[in-house]
Amino acid sequence: MKFCPQCGKPLETQFRDGKDRIQCTDQSELCGYVFWNNPTPVVAAIVEHEGDIILARNAAWPETWYALITGFLEAGETPEEGILREVKEELNLDAEIVELVGLYEFHRMNQLIIAYHVRATGEIQLSEELVDYKRKKDHEIQPWQAGTGKAVQDWQAKRGIFNEVISFR
């Protein structure tokens, strides 16, 4: 952004609250806009279906990359509602929440991930965003270093599973 979304004046980088931040050149009471760059909330699910864990591949990813079901939390919904919606949209499965796995930072994408373990029923039908899925037993999944991989690692550890973390999926 080069111009303020509130008043249209130029934006510039200035030191504020201990960091360089993009803000409006008009810092009067009339505007005072600051781009805080807060993380985006994302929901993620370790989807248990018929005794297996479902990992999916996004159409934009390399053929070897499979991960959890994820999506952006929408305005007005709780994280629980959001993840159940995402499981339905991405896999066409009805799900129930088993447990909150945890909260995880994903700095590269400026996201806060809210991860759940869900149990799902129905017949899998992939959305247009997904091109493939794999079924894995809980002990067969190798967690990855970033993002939702940390949730998988924590979830497995609660079950006494300690697999090696891989750096590249």
From TrEMBL:
Gene3D superfamilies: Nucleoside Triphosphate Pyrophosphohydrolase
MF terms (GO), sorted A to Z: hydrolase activity
Keywords of the record: Hydrolase
Keyword Endoplasmic reticulum appears in the UniProt entry: no
InterPro entries registered for this protein in UniProt: NUDIX_hydrolase-like_dom_sf (IPR015797), NUDIX_hydrolase_CS (IPR020084), NUDIX_hydrolase_dom (IPR000086)
Signal sequence, renumbered to the chain: none
Ranges of residues in domain Nudix hydrolase: 38-158
Pfam families: NUDIX (PF00293)
PANTHER family: NUDIX HYDROLASE 23 (PTHR43222), NUDIX HYDROLASE 23, CHLOROPLASTIC (PTHR43222:SF2)
Descriptive protein name: NAD+ diphosphatase
